[in-house]
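FW: tagging you since you asked about this chain on Friday. Here's the raw sequence from the shared folder, copied in full. Didn't touch anything.
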Amino acid sequence: MSTKYEIVTYGNPALKRKTRPIALVNKAIRELARDMLEAMYRANGVGLAAPQVGREESICVVDVTPRDEAGHPVPVTENAGVAMPLVMINPEVIRAEGEQRGQEGCLSFPEIFVTLTCAADVTVRYMDLDGREQRVDGVGLLARALLHEIDHLHGILLVDRMSAVQKLAVAGKLKRLKQENAAQSGSKK
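HL: got it, structure written out here
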């Protein structure tokens, strides 16, 4: 039976930890990937990294498939050759070019969205669930999602990418998230 994960939010120390590389893809790693995808879909996200479920392995999942109002996939032109979902083990950005500016959110920062700048076109090298090295090229939303999830694997959070003005604008929400985490931690002792 698979283990189910809840997504941890800002203030949880797991989010700031750097992950450790995965040396061997085994049944436990495949189950973790499946459970992470399930948690991501349950939260209506487009990406999720292991620290967001309290894990320390270097693994993240991404699915930027556009969907209609009924939740059905719609045809894509951008990144059309990339099969979704992506499960990436030990991912590494090997190329980042251009610039895009757009709205970004994070499952670990519920109800917080900010406009950020990141690379517009990236290439990521990773290991797949069969232990084979792969590469994926992404533009637009896929590039943004890849960079965001890989940041998580290095302990870099959405708040770390915000300007001082953006942090000030969401300070109340950030404080509430930290307080909720402190209360949950206290109740588990």
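FW: Residues 136 and 170 are 33 Å apart (CA to CA).
HL: agreed, and The first helix runs from residue 27 to 42.
FW: great, closing this out.
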